[in-house]
Every structure is written in structure tokens, then in C-alpha cells.
Amino acid sequence: MGKKLIRSLILAAIIAGAIVLGVGCAVALPTLDPSKLEAPATVTKIYGINENEKPIELSAKQAEPVPYKQIPEYLKQAIIATEDREFYQHSGVNFKSMARALFRDILAGGAVEGGSTITQQLAKNTYLNQDKTIVRKLKEIALAAQIERQYTKDDILEMYLNKVNFHPSAVGVELAAKIYFGKSAKDLNLAEAAFLAGLPQAPSYYYDNLDEALKRRKIVLQNMVDQGYITQQQADDAAKQPVTKDYLKRDPSNFQFPHYVEYVLQEAEQKYQIPREQILRGGLNIYTNLDFNAQRQLEKQFSNPSNFPPNAKDGTQVQSAMVIVDPKTGGIRAMVGGRDTTSFMNFNRAFQMRRQPGSSFKPLVVYGPAVETGRYGPNSVLVDKPGTTFPGNPPYTPRDWDNHKQIPRGDTVTMREAVKWSFNIPAVWLLNEIGIDTGKQMAEKAGIPFDKSDTGLGIALGGLNVGVSPLQMADAYQPFDNGGKRIEAYAIRQIKTSKGDSLAQANPRSVQVMKDSTAATLTSLMQSVVQSGTGSLAQISGRQIAGKTGTTEYSDQIAGSNRDAWFVGYSPELVAAVWMGFDNSNGYYLQDSGSITSSGYPARLFSRVMTDVLKSYPSGSFATAPAEEPPKPDKKEISLTGAWNGKTVMLSWTALQGDIQYYVFRTEGSQQTEGALPIFKGNVTTFVDTDVQPGKTYSYAISAINLKDNKQAGESNALTIKTANDPDKSNDKNGVPPKDTGKPSKQEPGNGKTDPKNGKNSPGGSSSDNNPAGNGTPGTGQTPSVPPGQTNSDPGGNTTGTDNGGNGSILFTPTPSSGGLLPTTPSN
């Protein structure tokens, strides 16, 4: 009895309101303008950040209207049976249907919606916005009543079918028929007519979800059976007729910058409740943060296949997405969500995709929070001991990408070395030290959403259950580039009607995610990544760049195989996030190509895009990081001497006590040896470098490791040797030649076979970054065996800097030279 009473009251209230409205509509409501019912869709203009540039003109595609007599009976019947069963009985408003819909809304606590007749929908789509309010509903009722007084039922149904959205960006049944079925509306059969009749309820949703659209068709067919239009057998037969996604190829949408426009439409709908259909019907002016030049440069680079890893063996294309954000305003400057930059309303990976971020997540959840505590800094010593196991169910034992084989070091590293080389063990150890909740709190303030299952230490390596999008990562990196502040990334600044009335106004909010000193420190750490670490391919001449690489491992049984590859980086002006991978990683993984590994591609694409984009921005500088005293390692000095004898360079150094292994490092030129990979290791104190050429300059240094505790025991002075052009003239001015012991030097290859396996993340995925500069032997997962006197270094020709702010160690910074190959085992 209670429900019946409520229904009666609601019905009475609606009728009473309609009566009152009917008396006063001529004064309170706009008078019906018949010309709008008969006019085609108008243009919506989308302006960029520079409003003097010609705007994007956006409008729904509209074919010639179909006369009532050419509309198939099946389509008319399907629409009436589904949208308005009493269409021919009411006078524009079906109060019983409205009461039922309103009753459902009240019980569900929802907005005022539903129950609209075909006439009301026509009024709403032509004259009103999409607000779900009582005021709008009353206006809709009044206008529907006026339409019914001036037009016949056939006229109303014809206008409706020619104006309603069957498709997200196409108006009218004629164009819908051509898009979905490649034919004119007059030639539609029962199955096709029923399919189209189900789409106006949610054209964008059904466009993207064919299976759901086919379920909707079954409902329409059953409605037609219930209303006596067709038999059950006809409905069953029609429901079996297939619909393929060939309609995607026939889609006529051809907007400029479609991927950015797609995000604008979504933001308008989700943030301001303005449906895309309303925008596409035209008549609006949308002011955005789009940088037309940045978008053009982004699309240009995405059209170049050489910027991406090779396709799979079956031809499946590697996909990618990239987002550029202004950290000072939060404005999204450019966005591409896939390799096909001309597609519209397809899957936009820039904001719709969720993938694990790998080691690009470390600054957000580990190093940023650790520095923020005040207890850690770039020179803090972190545990990097192989086999370190952390409690859990099951226990967690992460591994470094090189398994402590390629880069000689002890059981500890500084934070700067850990970030630069993307070691896993120190990151997990540090998160365990500061606490998982502490790490997550900063990431959440930076805009990262965590799933309730993201509770393990694997999040240190990007092991997230749901994952993140490139937009979320670019957004989250903003605080590093903006004094610790984040302004949530957004596209739309304002939306106005053609008359200048404001429909929406952005009100960006700034959140202090971290202290400005923390942001500056993290920037300094990530500059090391780009200058001389895993992200060296992201360098841009004349620009300060910071950033972090990240990959997620496909299989530890396939060397160098990655599901995802990331680079998130920034200049003082802009932040950008790049992702690459396959949409379906089941059986598909990124592969190396030539001298660059799959993990190097995102960093290189960042450099190529941003090199062109930043030409429009004055060159700035990062804030200076707070000074920090370097650690005082217990290391002894080794005296290194040597000379050119006309054919080889002969080196000799002082010995240390204990079970010592010495590493010889060499770079070509007078640059520092910091970061060069070793060309020799052994327990002797002499070395003859035979791989030298006359007329060159070489720099050498020695590092010693105590094999008992695997810690660095000492390091030498840097020694520069200039080889004479005349090989018969030795240069003994560079140092003292080694003593002739009468015995050949015991020499050992610098690097042998490397175990390609990498430590997996906790449940949720594994994380890995490939070699330091993104270059290496494709697909081998092995370090080439290096004979005595030969180098093993980066052939990429990248100009890398030194580790500014480091502790002077010669062990940890790769410095490219002219020959050899870098190893390709995965790293984080």
C-alpha cells in the first residue's frame, strides 16, 4: 500500500506541475523555434592554448535526411516498440511512463531521468542541454507539447530518426546505416533495423562494445514481438544474423587531432556532465590546454615506424601512447593514444589503458617518500646484497637485472647509483625500511590510485594489480618538476555556448605532494639516469632532462623479453610519459632491434618528440638540489702508472693486501673513466692494452674488490695516455712503464656469460629495465666475451655526462665509446 500511495503522489505532482507549466510556459519558457528542428547540426569549435590559432571544427556527421516514406517499417516499429510504445496515443508526454521512471529514480536515489517520449527526446536533443534536473524535465515537457501541436506524428518520427544519435559522432539513421552496414537506410532488413533501434540509448557505449549492442538488439526484437509487430520466429532468426566490426573501417570521423579530441569529449562528459552527443551537435566553444605544435610533433613521430620496436613475427604491431603535460598549470599539452593517429573513438591507450609501470614507479613510491622523511639522500648507502629475502607469504627475494655480474660493486650502493642503474634490491629494501604505507601515501597524493590488493613490497618495482595509464604517470611526475606541487592534469579550461554563456569553467587545485627540496633532490637523481644511466637515450642537446625508465618482464626464460617499456621524463618546462607494448601480451613481447633494446625505444622517442616540441619553449633550469656530504667509504688509494710503447699501452699499479680482484676501466678521450665498463679483471697488478690506435687519447682507472666481503677495497687515480701518431715512437711522458717481471700477465676476459634472469615482482607482475643506454646485443641476453685489451661499451654514440653529485666512484656510470656492445640482460 505504501508504494502505491507514493506512486499516486508522484503522478499527481507531475500532472500538477505540467498544468502549472502549461499556464505559464509562454512566459517562463522559450517559445518553440521550428527552424531548429529542421536545421542541420552546427559546428563546435575547440581552441588550443593559443586562441589565435584556427580552432578545430567539430561537428557530428550528418547525411541527407531520409523522407518518412523511405524509412523501413521495421525501423519505425523497432523504435516505437523500444522508445515509446504509446507514441500514437499520447500528446507528447506519457505521464504514466514518467511516473514509473521517477519512482525508480527516487527509490534508487538517482537523478531525474527516463520516461521520455520520442517527442520529448526530440525536444531535448534540439533545444536543451543534458542536465538531469526537474527544471530541464519541465522545459522538455512544455516543448514536447508545443511540437505535438504543430507537427503530425509522422513528421515527429521522421525528424527524430534524422536527428537522433545512433553513433557517437554521426546524426541520423541514414548515416548510421551506411556506417554500420554499408547501405542506405531504406534497404535495412529486420535484423539491421533492430540493431540500430537499440543504439540511441547509449551510442558511444554500444559503438565500443559490439557484444553489448547485440544483446541490446535481442531486447529490441523481443519488444517488437510483445507489441505484435513480428513473430517470435522472426525475432529468433534476426537475432542470429551476425554484425561485424567492419563498421570501424567505414567510420567517417576525420577530426584534426582526434586522440586529444576524444579526451576532451570524455572530460566534458565525466567532469562537467556534458555528453559528447551534445558537443557533436555543435554550437559550443571549448577552450583547452592543447598545444597545436606539440600535438603535430607528437603525431609526426608516431607516424615513423623506426621509432618503435619490431612487430611480432605474425605482424602484430607494437603499440604506444604518449602524453605531455605542463607542470606549472596541469594543462595537457598533447596526447596520442596509439600508432594510428587518425583514428577516432578507438581505444585510447593514453588514458584508457592500465599497465604496470615497472621501475618508472620507484621515484613515486620509494625514493621520493624516503627523501621526504629526511633520513635519506642521494649518498645514503642502501643494501644491494644478492639473495636478500623479505618477509611475506611467500617470502620475497628480488634480484638485480645484472645479478651482480656486469657492474662490479659490493653489497651496498648509494641511492644515486641505485636510481641511475635501476637496481631492484635497494628499492625493495628501502621501501621496507620506510614502510609500505609511507610509500603509498605520497604516490596517492600524486594521483596514483591503488587497488586494495596492492599491499606488498612488489609495488616498489611497479607491481600493481590494476596498473596505470600514461596520463596518470605524467600527472604523477608533475610534482618533481613543480616544486613538489601537483595540479591535476586537465584538458578543458572553459566551455561556452555560441552566445558566450559559460557552461563549464575549470578550477584547478594545487596539492603539495612533497617538499620543494625533495622534488629538487629527486630531479637531481633522475638527471643522473638520463646523463649516464638507463635513460641516456632521452638526452636532448642544450636541455636539462630528468626521468626514469621502466619495463615489466615477460619471461625470465626469454632473455630481454618485456611486456611493457616506459620512460617518464621532464624538462624544466614540460613532463611527458611514453609507453610501448602489445595490447595483448599473451604470447607477445617486445624485442630488441639492431643496436637498441626494447627498453631504449621509449627514452629515444621522448627525446625525438621533445626536441622538436621544446623549440617553442625558452630553455630553463631545474631548481638546485640541497647539498649533501658525500659518504666516506673505507677505500684505499691505488697508484696507477702506465706508458705507450709504440704498439700497446702498458699499465702497472700498486697492490692491496688481501684476496683482491682488480678491474681496469678505459674510455677513449680525456673524459673521466667514471662509468666505463671494465676491459679486464684479475688478481695481477699489470695489464697490457693491445686494442689501442696511434694518435688517440685514452683514460684509465683501477677499482679493487675484496673477494672475501665483495666490497670495494680501493680505487686509483685517473691516468690519461696519448698514443703517438708514429707507432715507432713511444710516449713515456704519461707515466712509468710497468716493470718486466719476466712472466706473462695473467689476464681474464672482462665479462662472461650473463644470467639473463631478473627478479620477479610480487604477485601482480615483474619489473625490469634493459641495459644502461638502451643499446645492446639483440635478443641474446648475454654479455659478449671480451678478450684482453678490448672494450665492452655502448655503440650508440650517445653523448653522456658524468654523475653530478655522486661520490666519485668509477664503478657505476656507463660512458659510451666507439666499439663493442652493451649487454642486454633485463634490468629495472
From TrEMBL:
Q: Which UniProt keywords apply?
A: Carboxypeptidase, Cell membrane, Cell shape, Cell wall biogenesis/degradation, Glycosyltransferase, Hydrolase, Membrane, Multifunctional enzyme, Peptidoglycan synthesis, Protease, Transferase, Transmembrane, Transmembrane helix
Report a single Gene Ontology molecular function. Answer: peptidoglycan glycosyltransferase activity
In this chain, composition skew of type Low complexity spans 759-784, 791-802
Pfam families documented for this protein: Fn3_SaeA_3rd, Transgly, Transpeptidase
Q: Which reaction does it catalyse?
A: [GlcNAc-(1->4)-Mur2Ac(oyl-L-Ala-gamma-D-Glu-L-Lys-D-Ala-D-Ala)](n)-di-trans,octa-cis-undecaprenyl diphosphate + beta-D-GlcNAc-(1->4)-Mur2Ac(oyl-L-Ala-gamma-D-Glu-L-Lys-D-Ala-D-Ala)-di-trans,octa-cis-undecaprenyl diphosphate = [GlcNAc-(1->4)-Mur2Ac(oyl-L-Ala-gamma-D-Glu-L-Lys-D-Ala-D-Ala)](n+1)-di-trans,octa-cis-undecaprenyl diphosphate + di-trans,octa-cis-undecaprenyl diphosphate + H(+); Preferential cleavage: (Ac)2-L-Lys-D-Ala-|-D-Ala. Also transpeptidation of peptidyl-alanyl moieties that are N-acyl substituents of D-alanine
Q: Which GO terms describe its biological process?
A: cell wall organization; peptidoglycan biosynthetic process; proteolysis; regulation of cell shape
Q: Where is the composition biased (Polar residues)?
A: 810-828
Annotated region Disordered: where? 385-405, 720-828
UniProt key word Secreted: no
Identify the GO cellular component terms for this protein.
outer membrane-bounded periplasmic space
**Does the record carry Cell membrane as a key word?**
yes
Per UniProt, residues of the Fibronectin type-III domain are 630-726
Q: CDD domains given for it?
A: FN3
Query: Which family is this sequence assigned to?
Result: In the N-terminal section; belongs to the glycosyltransferase 51 family. In the C-terminal section; belongs to the transpeptidase family.
Q: What is this protein called?
A: Fibronectin type-III domain-containing protein
- Annotated source species: Effusibacillus dendaii
